[in-house]
């Protein structure tokens, strides 16, 4: 039951209003690439071009690089300064359902498996205002991954395009509270709900890329040792990090210290299992060969994560397909996994 | 021509003249071709000659064992020759299937001109110097000058000089250097301080994916300097300083091997104008030492050669 | 650290062990005066100097880098300095294109008997670096980029 909507023309006003309580982030190309950036106070031209960002919204919670803490080396040892808490209230405006679902998947690692204070201080203080898709990309396959272009389960508010306005679905208590205190909104009309349902269906049907993930966990398990298969799959991969760094559910990070004289900083920054040195250790590198790394990536997302958390760590956002330099396509790979599960019996 | 390519590739495998075939197959997205690397002769049926065969397939040569039959455009063949110059591959281990290239269409340029993303376009058709884009049923016409990659507009060798099988008619170079070099020219009009700030800005969004390095055939080091930890030359942290150093040193390290194939810029997911670095190095190497990469397989690589008198004006 | 206080340029010199380093020693024993702002790293040959070292030096905060080797034709390893010549030439020009002041990377041929020349070179290079000021190339940017 949604009883509020906002006119597309009033988005700037709405964001301005919310800027009084939050640091508002919205899609922007100002940096040179489409990413969520601090809203500049006026620009809403993203409503014209925005389909999805290149840099996923995970960057707001798990930044590309993050100072963990600073330290000094003294005569008696190291003095570690407690890191400043980042408890800025943020509002991410325009997050797509695939990326919001990805945040819920990341929460399983950073909330359930362990409590990561850096991630959580940002995550707990952020309101997610989703924007339902109307124009999915050819690389999108969210409808096969348990979500949809207009799914609201993972956001506080979901805006559905109904022509001149966005219908506002209030999802969480936080979302409801925010709307209750927001002025620049209109009451919905009688047929707005129906328009929203139409808009949702239209967007759903426009997702043409489909993937059947039935039994994939067991299929991958059964094919794990098929080196010949994985060599074929990995042949054209160039081991860059694009698919993993820009994947909204990937979370691997590297920790490095940098010291200048007696002062140092510990950094956390994005890492990729695709890099040849990812598993390099003094004695050996268990994933020296490219096919092992490619196998790891596929299995982590479609086998290991489901084994631990009961969900495939992929939301069908399609970035990996669109941005891959060699057009390596996860949907083609998943479809091609041999079905050895029967044979194993 | 595609039929002939498939036949030749199949024959090479059947007659055991090569162990691998590297070429292009249709991609899984519109306006895309994807590298095909196979030992299977039936796979050769998938080979295509596509207006979207962007990748420089020479990139795969240093990571593969055995003899290779490889599809090569002009720029790719120069990379192959450069690898032969560097002794990374032996001439007799490659069978070069030369595809004279008319220049490839830059989808990013089309997106800018039309104001839509590539998957929203119905069709892109090229006829000679005309490129017609169909979007929402409407046809829009552009010239090749507006739509080809900058590096294609500067192409000095559309037809490989070094090849075994020629698949098509040879094409003469038609370098439109002025258009292709305009990004660099614009930069040179700014002051040094402005230029440095420009690069600071550009490299602030680098995510250190290393796609530029990995897609580059000239980057074939087993152990790249960025991965060295003793000493740590560059931190893996994506600060603009480290990102900038990585790219600058990378370009200097591949000087004389870079053939301006444009892959570095094309693959960058965050749109950093890497070619404005690579092409400038390419030009400098020509200006200083009259060296053009990958032209003569008997020639010594740039850094292995020297003249008695050169560049003395830079030394005290 | 203020800029108001008298800034002294910090130079890093890569001197080849056979010629330039010996030349520098000779400058010392001959009591030739030259600015004390230079720190020296001895390398076996000027050809050992990778462009990476030069750029790393600038990154670390050195205001200028000097690479000095044997005269062309006199290299102890026959061709090392020819490699250096090509490498330094492209590094110097490339850095200039990027916006780095040309005075920050200088190169010279100084033989083991040229103590006087070494002193002159260091003096000139120091003067040149003084003119372009402290190296702020890699300091944090003034404008704060917005970050999500």
List its traits.
heterotrimer; A: 345 residues; alpha+beta; 13 helices; 33% helix; globular; C: 148 residues; alpha/beta; Rossmann fold; 4-stranded parallel sheet; 4 helices; 39% helix; 16% strand
Task: Describe the protein's architecture and organization.
- The complex is a heterotrimer of chains A (345), B (316) and C (148).
- Chain A is an alpha+beta fold and 345 residues long.
- Chain A has two domains: 202 residues, no CATH class; 129 residues, no CATH class.
- Chain A is built from 13 helices and twelve strands.
- Chain A has an eight-stranded mixed beta sheet. In chain A, strands 5-4-12-11 form a four-stranded antiparallel beta sheet, with no helix packed on it.
- In chain A, β4 and β5 form a beta hairpin.
- The longest helix of chain A has 20 residues.
- Chain A starts with a strand and ends with a helix.
- The mean pLDDT of chain A is 94.
- Chain B is of the alpha/beta class.
- A five-stranded mixed beta sheet of chain B has the order 2-1-3-4-8. A three-stranded antiparallel beta sheet of chain B has the order 5-6-7.
- In chain B, α2 links the parallel β3 and β4.
- Chain B is globular.
- The model of chain B has no long low-confidence stretch (mean pLDDT 94).
- With 148 residues, chain C is an alpha/beta fold.
- Chain C has one domain: Rossmann fold, CATH 3.40.50.
- Chain C has a four-stranded parallel beta sheet with strand order 2-1-3-4, sandwiched between helices.
- In chain C, β1, α1 and β2 form a beta-alpha-beta unit.
- The interface between A and B is large, with 43 and 43 residues.
